[in-house]
Amino acid sequence: MSASFNYSLMATDGLARAGVIRTTRGDIATPAFMPVGTAGTVKGMLPESVRATGADILLGNTYHLMLRPGAERVARLGGLHRFMNWDGPILTDSGGFQVMSLSGLRKLTEAGVTFRSHVDGSRHELSPERSMEIQALLGSDIVMAFDECPALPADRARLAESMRLSMRWAARSREAFGDRPGHALFGIQQGGLERDLREESAEALRAIGFDGYAIGGLAVGEGQEAMFECLDYAPGMLPEDRPRYLMGVGKPDDIVGAVKRGVDMMDCVLPSRSGRTGQAWTRRGQVNLKNARHADDPRPLDEDCTCPACRGYSRAYLHHVYRSGEMIAGMLLTWHNLHYYQELMAGMRAAITGGRFAAWETEFHAARAEGDIAPL
Amino acid sequence: MSASFNYSLMATDGLARAGVIRTTRGDIATPAFMPVGTAGTVKGMLPESVRATGADILLGNTYHLMLRPGAERVARLGGLHRFMNWDGPILTDSGGFQVMSLSGLRKLTEAGVTFRSHVDGSRHELSPERSMEIQALLGSDIVMAFDECPALPADRARLAESMRLSMRWAARSREAFGDRPGHALFGIQQGGLERDLREESAEALRAIGFDGYAIGGLAVGEGQEAMFECLDYAPGMLPEDRPRYLMGVGKPDDIVGAVKRGVDMMDCVLPSRSGRTGQAWTRRGQVNLKNARHADDPRPLDEDCTCPACRGYSRAYLHHVYRSGEMIAGMLLTWHNLHYYQELMAGMRAAITGGRFAAWETEFHAARAEGDIAPL
User: Fold this and answer.
1) Residues ≥6 apart with Cβ < 8 Å to B164
2) What are A90's strand-pairing partners?
């Protein structure tokens, strides 16, 4: 790890870990949830509002930004932080996952992948070298190695082949990344749900050496039970003195289960996407504000929540503005959801530090089991 | 005027007036621009952000709110201020104008108007009595008399007939409004572009007696020149010791021209609607952020503007997020536009108070004549 990027493990409770990642742009308390700012904005939020929810770090998407507005353009404009007015740390993904899920007409070779933009059909290519270049142009603080991520279920031969390609790409990513003080490079473990492939992948990554290690290839349709089974062993294969990042996870109970199993960082579009579709996440589970039961309900979404949506508005209001297609519905519900996610992380950090994670987890599940408050 | 609602004329410069309207929910510095919060929200803005732009008062739409979520529901939920989390004064229109412009299948009689909702086709009626009831249920601070507003051009006979109906409705509105301490009722002058009809209407309204007087039936397609011609005489027909409100106006130069002619209050959806369609208003006129010339422009929209959009973001960013369909585009541009409008009003208030309105107006037009900054 470079002097300007380091991870300190502060406390453990079972396998759960609390720590701090120090970057030149500020500290990241872990376990950390990273809101997703796909195309240079966390949808529906001003960056100062994202900060106010307690977020220490944002995620940006290489795939989206390379297509629009373009990495070279962002660089000319002073980098992604300045462009999107966020001065905290930014992690960028490598683009590999989204090429697979979003683009049309892909061609995958040892060299990399060529594809057509989902925005305008234009032809592009990504490779470990180009992905490192783009992430450097964006000015990302935490750069992800370029990998291939197969959809699950996939047969073992396909998984093995894909994982080994990703490991060769990881080595090329490391080589292309070079020495960039103040910037970190994370490797990504692959191998699907095959334990030995996960081990082989972890060994390959450790041999290359990264500033942090991600667990990739999960949350792609395998279900929570299968994911947790994999997380029962996968984090332990990665170096204890580096942050461990589970990519693309997840629902609140996914996150709690991942932290319990030794994960330090996560990201997901769920809180912001849910917010735009009238869904709220609270201590008592999911609340669908579209539902007519809220139309006359003067109570806040969660009376104990201190976010602007819960302090200032009734369920009836949130229902009304969602039904009326008003922007403020997505703005308030996204804010609430991100606030809830950050409170969830803060609660876990405190519980781990206090050595009471198991009790905290019991309480977490008990509140959800109660379900939403009864209709009036 | 009730003791808890009054208007103080503080300064005049030519026909332009600076003053203060005092209400139980706070003072309104005039000339005042009222952002439009149609359905319980100024689109794309949190109310605290609207306040931060300098707005003293919001406008709410009776027509929209009666249809969804319903006036009785808003009343049960504690009134519109609480519902939408805005504790400053609210002016509500009477619903008359929007029944004419938005609803389907209308039937107009002496009693009032029956119509079908543009939301769900349900049947509703509005009358002076029902409009007063709805505006009371909403808890509006400034209530507008129920009127009919014919589209222009209209022949003189139609204008006269419509104006006289509106004056009979004004008397019924006054009667139905009754005595509501802390709440004001404004009458609305009609008469199209016919000076004698405007005079007849003003006399009828003065005979009834209102807390303030609106100029209705303008900004409905007649053009700025014709509107200014009417404003050369219409405000002077209304009592000098009461606020004068020009409904539904307008573009910045419309507003300046109206203030110059003695108008104290205005409202318009333009700054918020423009913001959502990539249009910005600045001292140098209109800027279309959709235009490709902004794609690489690192400069702010207006380097002298202190709004969040101008302090934190480049034109290139605003262009990018607009093109990408991101909510933040409408959020930032609406904020900027409302901020600009409020600065415009503050500039005029200071100029009137300082007795230099003519010089201010020359400067206003000179900056606009220069046009936007040159492309890089």
Assistant:
1) none
2) A58
| Inter-chain touch B327–A326, beta carbons under 8 Å | no
CA distances from A144 to A166, A210, A236, A270 (A): 12, 10, 20, 21
CA distances from B296 to A41, A77, B59 (A): 18, 7, 38
Which band of pLDDT confidence, cut at 50, 70 and 90, is reported for residue A152? confident
Amino acid identity of residue A151, one-letter, is: A
Sign of the Cα torsion A88, A89, A93, A95 reads positive
Give yes or no for B203 touching A (CB within 8 A). Answer: no
Nearest CA in chain A to B300: A83
Identity of the residue in B69, B85, B296 whose CB atom sits nearest the CB atom of A312: B85
Residue in B44, B68, B295 nearest the CB of A327 = B44
Architecture of domain A6-268: Alpha-Beta Barrel (3.20)
Amino acid (1-letter code) at residue B49: S
- Which residues of A carry out catalysis? 93, 267
DSSP per-residue letters across B97-142: HHHHHH-EEEEE-SS-EEEE-TTT--EEEE-HHHHHHHHHHHT-SE
In chain A, domain spans: 6-268, 275-368
Residues of B belonging to the active site: 93, 267
The CA radius of gyration of chain B, in Å to the nearest whole number, is 20
pLDDT at B178 over 80: yes
Residue A1 has pLDDT above 60, yes or no: no
ipTM of the complex in this document:
0.98
E strands in A32-133: 32-35, 58-60, 90-92, 104-108, 113-116, 123-126
The two structure tokens encoding residue B171: 């008397």
> How high is the pLDDT of residue B106?
86
CA distance A37 to A90: 9
The arithmetic mean of pLDDT across residues A216-225, rounded, is: 94
Q: Do A39 and B78 touch (CB under 8 A)?
A: no
Distance CA B343, CA A136 (A): 40
Whole-angstrom Cα distance, residue A60 to residue B247?
45
Partners of B365 in the beta sheet?
none
Is the predicted pLDDT of residue A104 greater than 80, yes or no? no
Decide if A321 touches B, using CB distance below 8 A: yes
CA distance B247 to B189: 10
Q: Please answer yes or no on whether B77 and A45 come within 8 Å at the CB atom.
A: no
Q: Which residues of B touch A77 (CB under 8 A)?
A: 296, 298, 314, 316-317
The helix/strand/coil state of A350 is helix
Q: Which residues of A touch B327 (CB under 8 A)?
A: 41, 43-44, 327, 330-331
Strands of A141-216, DSSP E:
142-144, 184-189, 212-215
Residues on chain B touching A41 (C-beta within 8 angstroms):
321, 326-328
3-class state of residue B158 by DSSP = helix
Query: Measured between alpha carbons, how far is A310 from A189 in angstroms, rounded to an integer?
Result: 39
Helix (H/G/I), strand (E/B), else coil: B293: helix
To the nearest whole angstrom, how far is the Cα of B52 from the nearest Cα of chain A? 15
Distance CA B132, CA A96 (A): 61
Residue B102 pLDDT: 82
Interface check for B308 against chain A (CB to CB < 8 A): the answer is yes
pLDDT band at A95 (very low <50, low <70, confident <90, very high): very high
Global confidence as pTM: 0.98
